[in-house]
Amino acid sequence: MNKLTKYLIGIDEAGRGPLAGPVSVGAVMLNIQDLKEREKWFSGIKDSKKLSEKAREEWFAKMKKAKRDGWLRFAVAFGSARMIDKKGIVFAIEYSLRQALLKLGANPKKTTILLDGGLKAPPKYIYQKTIIKGDEKEPVIALASIAAKVSRDRLMKKISRKYPKYNFEKHKGYGTLGHYKKIKKHGVLPLHRKSFL
Known about the structure:
Elements: E1 7-14, E2 23-31, H1 32-37, H2 53-69, E3 72-79, H3 81-87, H4 89-104, E4 111-116, E5 128-131, H5 134-137, H6 139-162, H7 168-171, H8 177-186
Parallel strand pairs: 1-4, 4-5
Antiparallel strand pairs: 1-2, 2-3
Helix pairs in contact: 2-6, 3-4
């Protein structure tokens, strides 16, 4: 952590691999001092993929309360299936990452950014670090992964009401056998990533 910075942001994405729906990027921001003082609050946090859906929803509710209490902020941005097909998944993730950071209004000179995997923030954020398996090592990245995953899952459930034949509420757009069968039977939707099929 850089000693010159006051804030910490964690960033992670969800939905890189599905056949349908957007990719999402979550960004979580807090005062570095709060991270030290609220160590207990973070106990039990894990990468979203290692938590049950119920546990993710519970963490998301905790994050919303922390946001209302004023010590934590988070934002999620999406890159659509259309964008993924036109410009590629990397572009869609980079776009969503920039949008999430814009929503948080972080000052690049006062913020340390920790990113998961191969993610990078725009160069103006001079204090940034990409961490392999960061969602397992840094609580703030784990929170970002939960924000990204829960927001995307909720969106896919909402979409499933519009297209009930596809069971999006179950597979969330991932390439399950059931999903492939539905595509075969009912055809490709605008929210399918044609480049992934």
